[in-house]
Design a protein that fits this description.
The protein contains 16 helices and 10 strands. It has 425 residues and is α+β, with helices and mostly antiparallel strands. The chain has 3 domains: 239 residues, 3-hydroxy-3-methylglutaryl-coenzyme A Reductase, Chain A, domain 2 (Alpha-Beta Complex); 103 residues, Hydroxymethylglutaryl-CoA reductase, class I/II, NAD/NADP-binding domain (Alpha-Beta Plaits, 2-Layer Sandwich); 47 residues, Helicase, Ruva Protein, domain 3 (Orthogonal Bundle), CATH 1.10.8. It has a 4-stranded antiparallel sheet. A 4-stranded antiparallel sheet has the order 5-6-4-7, covered by helices on one side. It has a two-stranded antiparallel sheet with strand order 1-2. The chain binds nicotinamide-adenine-dinucleotide (NAD). Nicotinamide-adenine-dinucleotide (NAD) binds next to helix 7 and helix 8.
């Protein structure tokens, strides 16, 4: 066997072409032709564009985009593209939306497009005075922030408010300034980061302290999106199902172990639309989980109650800092196509639809949990993946998946055995 050069210190890697990098990786990891061929195959993104989006690009990864049907949001029918590798996610949204379509679909709202940037000031002997000194400069601070982004200003965005807190920390008191900025149709991370960095020297000058961090907070609790829907009891299969779903919600509300899974289900839907539209999934996820813990204990992002006529009402409220410009939203052609499918013209509209999807997803999961269990539907879809994983192709995939579901054994070893039988082995 030839010896390979196993050093990760590959000189000039970032200056190589994508192909050269791929060759270097293939040599390092001993990739065979088939793996290299897969990595070389472009998806629906130009390799040159990919090379400009991030560093050290060697390939792109294609994720299926499914379209959720039956969605009615604020009286408008919408088709929702969802990028996800997980089976059942799209089907759950379609089913949940179907069950509230006739009762009006989803009603949504937003709190605004406000993002928060934090400036951390340390080393001030009199932090309470420093706090006051910063608050006294509100007009100056507004002018400094607004000077950073004239385009945003022209679009009606810019500085909106100022908050300053003295934070007790292990290293002593810190003075934390929050810049509250309307970033319009951008997620706004770069925008507010620039403002915080530009302002920092002035804060040091006014207070005599030292500024360290200057960056947005992903706890975007000034950029909330909300969705609600009512599912008539007849549409969801009766009072027992409804009550089981309420009990499931109560469980999530009371227990962080359950809430983490409950909210993960919400994010199955939310992250899929965030990704399909080229937005920052990590930013939305960090904000969602931080918001879920805002009262000191991690809890459910949704709530459910029984209405006066016995229907099930569901509500979701969470930070949804997404944009139509900035990041990959404008540069990724697939993201642009997905935004076109959604037919949205503002970031707020996008956030509202995403909130509706998150609620639909949660309804679907709770209903499955309260009735047949999550595995029945999930495994039926997952069986296709298992079939492909053991080498089924073409019509075999469906055939083998059906056999696995019928046998209630959606496992790779069983799949391999059944595939051999199918092939007359
Ligand atoms: P951006 O800087 O690419 O675009 C925003 C700019 O677009 C604005 O400054 C404005 O001048 C212009 N613009 C044009 N039309 C606009 C409109 N209709 N509304 C608003 N602005 C308009 O992007 P961004 O949104 O500031 O930053 C998003 C990116 O920052 C994402 O890629 C994210 O991943 C990344 N990021 C995230 C974090 C974090 O979440 N912690 C930190 C740093 C960077």
């Amino acid at each position: 066997m030839p010896t390979r050069n196993l050093t990760s210190r590959i000189s000039g890697f970032h200056r190589m072409t994508t192909e050269e990098r791929l060759e270097a990786v293939a040599a390092f990891s001993d990739l065979d032709e088939s793996a290299v061929g897969t990595l070389r195959r472009p998806g629906n993104i130009d390799p040159h564009l990919a090379d400009h989006m991030i560093e050290n690009v060697v390939a792109t990864l294609s994720i299926p985009i499914g379209v959720a049907t039956n969605m009615k949001v604020d009286g408008r029918d919408v088709l929702v593209p969802m990028a996800t590798e997980e089976s059942s996610v799209v089907a759950a949204v379609c089913n949940s939306a179907r069950q509230c379509y006739d009762s009006g679909g989803f009603i949504t709202s937003v709190s605004g497009n406000l993002m928060i940037a934090q400036v951390q000031l340390v080393g001030v002997p009199d932090p309470e005075q420093a706090r006051m000194m910063i608050l006294e400069r509100r007009e100056e601070i507004a002018a400094i922030c607004d000077s950073c982004d004239p385009m945003l200003l022209r679009l009606g965005g810019g500085f909106r408010d100022l908050e300053v807190r003295v934070l007790a920390s292990r290293g002593g008191p810190m003075v934390i300034t929050h810049l509250i900025v309307d970033t319009r149709d951008a997620m706004g991370a770069n925008t507010v980061n620039t403002m915080a960095e530009t302002l920092a020297p002035s804060i040091e000058e006014w207070t005599g302290g030292k500024v360290f961090l200057r960056i947005l907070s992903n706890l975007a609790d000034r950029r909330l999106a909300r969705a609600r829907a009512v599912w008539p009891v007849a549409a969801i299969g009766g009072e027992a199902v409804r009550d089981g779903m309420i009990a499931a919600y109560h469980f999530a509300e009371a227990d962080p172990y359950r809430a983490a899974t409950h909210n993960k289900g919400i994010m199955n839907g939310v992250s899929a639309v965030v990704l399909a539209t080229g937005n920052d999934t990590r930013a939305v996820e960090a904000g969602a989980h931080a918001y879920a813990a805002r009262n000191g204990r991690y809890s459910s992002l949704t709530s459910f109650e029984v209405t006066a006529d016995g229907s099930l009402a569901g509500m979701l409220e969470m930070p949804l800092p997404v944009g139509l410009v900035g990041g990959a939203t404008k540069v990724h052609p697939t993201a642009q196509a997905c935004l076109k499918i959604l037919g949205v013209s503002t970031a707020a509209e996008l956030a509202r639809i995403i909130a509706a999807v998150g609620l639909a997803q949660n309804f679907g999961a709770l209903k499955a949990l309260a009735t047949v269990g999550i595995q029945q539907g999930h495994m039926a879809l997952h069986a296709h993946n298992v079939a492909i994983a053991v080498g089924a192709t073409g019509a075999e995939v469906e055939q083998l998946a059906n056999i696995l579901v019928a046998r209630r054994r959606v496992r790779q070893d069983v799949a391999a055995e059944e595939l051999a039988k199918l092939r007359g082995g």
